[in-house]
């Protein structure tokens, strides 16, 4: 009997996270088998409609509905099995049937799926692929020399392939979209277990999906290349003009600001796509490594073909993204340099203005001092005249006072009094200003 221990409260996501490792287990139940797979790019509104459409299929075949917030779902219907997964920007559908077809790819698993239901699927098709697992005897593939007979299943196109999973199977494809709109994978079973077959099919489908999704950034990179060259030339023109003595710094700064905005707009608009391309390409490499390929003489392996055809495009995307980042840094450095120069010019202008203001203040002080001297003379003149008038009045009433003498003698005393008063006023003003 299981003993239940008193434990702390479970995290709300504990069981969901724990069971995530079992969410995408091997799905193939028996061999031989056929599978059809496609990936759809969807908007947020289409994702909501997709769930309703999936629920309609389940109701049609009386199958338990997926959970409300589920991002993956697997179920067995009357004549086929379905695996559905919803990812960040796309959803995938895989359909499985188990029998020996008369034609490996014409009799696909989709023939068991209701056509009217498939016709109403939301989104845009980005990948569609058929996979068939057959025994070696069914295709007369006994030795590596028999690979040329397999080309008839791929419209006689050159094929790519290798032995995988330790030699338990061989996988072939031509990486082309055929007249039915699907690419093709042929798996020749030598000693596959059902779990191995399920994992192998899933890896092949993921290679196809992630390979195409990684290339979504390539058209953007080619489109941005002329914009990158244009921005680079514009930055060169601006920085070259900055070295000229008669340039208009304000105009150059406006041009740099506009250029910086354009470059940052390109980076922010396409950063996700370029980052996703790098992540998808890494996933492709991981899935190819998981195949554990062994070379078949005369044809390319999956790893060789994908590296030769996919790596240049991914390198182009990474180069464009990196160059835009470097261009942004260069524009920022040029802007900072130009702003520094503008700030220095403004500082020099301010310094010259302050010097001019100081000179004017000094001149005003000199003029004020001169006016004060004149004022002292004028005040002394009027004060002496006033004393002279007083002396004349006293002489008129009988006092023996000489008016001219009194006026002349008073002048030095008046000057001293006015000088002392002015000096005191200056001290009062200075002390008030300092406070």
Overview of the molecule:
The chain is an alpha+beta fold and 435 residues long. The protein has 3 domains: 27-205, no CATH class; 217-351, Methane Monooxygenase Hydroxylase, Chain G, domain 1; 366-434. The protein is 56% helix and 13% strand. It is built from 8 helices and 8 strands. The protein has helices spanning 14-19, 44-60, 115-119, 194-214, 217-242, 249-291, 302-396, 403-434, and strands at 33-41, 72-76, 81-86, 90-97, 124-135, 160-164, 169-173, 183-189. It starts with 13 loop residues before the first helix and ends with a helix.
Write the layout of secondary structure elements.
Elements: H1 14-19, E1 33-41, H2 44-60, E2 72-76, E3 81-86, E4 90-97, H3 115-119, E5 124-135, E6 160-164, E7 169-173, E8 183-189, H4 194-214, H5 217-242, H6 249-291, H7 302-396, H8 403-434
Helix pairs in contact: 4-6, 5-6, 5-7, 6-7, 7-8
Low-confidence spans: none
The oligomeric state of the chains shown is: single chain
Order of SSEs, N→C?
HEHEEEHEEEEHHHHH
Counting DSSP E segments of at least 2 residues, the number of strands comes to 8
Number of DSSP helices? 8
Overall structural domain count: 3
* Portion in helices: 55-70%
User: How much of the residues is beta strand, in percent?
Assistant: 5-15%
Strand count, sense and barrel status of the largest sheet are: 8 strands, mixed
Q: Please tell me what the overall shape is.
A: elongated
Record the strand order, biggest sheet.
2-3-4-1-5-8-7-6
Radius of gyration: 46 Å
Instruction: Report the mean per-residue pLDDT as an integer.
Output: 86
State the separation between the terminal residues, measured CA to CA. 91 Å
| SS-based class | alpha+beta
């Amino acid at each position: 009997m299981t003993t239940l221990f008193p434990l702390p409260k479970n995290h709300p996501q504990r069981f969901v996270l724990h069971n995530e490792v079992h969410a995408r287990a091997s799905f193939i139940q028996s061999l031989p088998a056929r599978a059809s797979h496609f990936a759809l790019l969807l908007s947020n509104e289409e994702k909501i409609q997709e769930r309703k459409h999936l629920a309609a299929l389940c109701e049609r075949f009386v199958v338990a509905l997926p959970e409300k917030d589920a991002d993956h779902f697997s179920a067995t219907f009357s004549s086929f099995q379905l695996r559905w997964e919803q990812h960040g920007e796309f959803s995938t559908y895989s359909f499985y049937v188990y029998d020996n077809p008369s034609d490996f790819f014409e009799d696909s698993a989709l023939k068991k799926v209701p056509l009217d239901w498939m016709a109403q699927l939301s989104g845009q098709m980005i990948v569609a692929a058929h996979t068939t697992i057959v025994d070696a005897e069914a295709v007369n593939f006994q030795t590596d020399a028999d690979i040329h007979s397999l080309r008839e299943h791929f419209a006689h196109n050159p094929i790519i392939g290798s032995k995988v999973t330790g030699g338990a199977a061989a996988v072939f494809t031509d990486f082309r979209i055929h007249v039915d709109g699907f690419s093709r994978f042929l798996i020749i079973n030598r000693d596959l277990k059902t779990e191995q077959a399920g994992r192998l099919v899933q890896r092949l489908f993921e290679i196809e999906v992630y390979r195409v999704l990684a290339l979504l950034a390539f058209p953007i990179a080619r489109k941005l290349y002329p914009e990158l060259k244009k921005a680079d030339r514009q930055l060169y023109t601006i920085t070259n003009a900055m070295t000229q003595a008669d340039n208009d710094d304000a105009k150059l700064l406006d041009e740099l600001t506009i250029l910086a905005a354009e470059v940052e707009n390109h980076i922010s608009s396409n950063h996700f796509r370029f980052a996703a391309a790098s992540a998808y390409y890494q996933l492709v490499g991981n899935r190819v490594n998981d195949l554990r390929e062994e070379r078949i003489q005369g044809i390319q392996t999956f790893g060789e073909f994908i590296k030769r055809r996919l790596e240049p495009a991914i390198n182009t995307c990474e180069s464009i993204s990196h160059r835009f980042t470097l261009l942004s840094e260069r524009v920022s450095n040029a802007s900072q340099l130009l702003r520094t120069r503008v700030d220095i010019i403004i500082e020099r202008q301010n310094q010259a203005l302050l010097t001019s203001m100081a000179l004017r203040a000094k001149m005003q002080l000199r003029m004020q001092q001169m006016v004060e001297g004149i004022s002292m003379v004028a005040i002394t003149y009027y004060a002496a005249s006033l004393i002279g008038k007083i002396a004349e009045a006293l002489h008129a009433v009988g006092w023996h006072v000489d008016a001219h003498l009194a006026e002349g003698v008073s002048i030095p005393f008046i000057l001293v009094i006015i000088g002392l008063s002015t000096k005191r006023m200056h001290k009062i003003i200075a002390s008030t200003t300092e406070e």
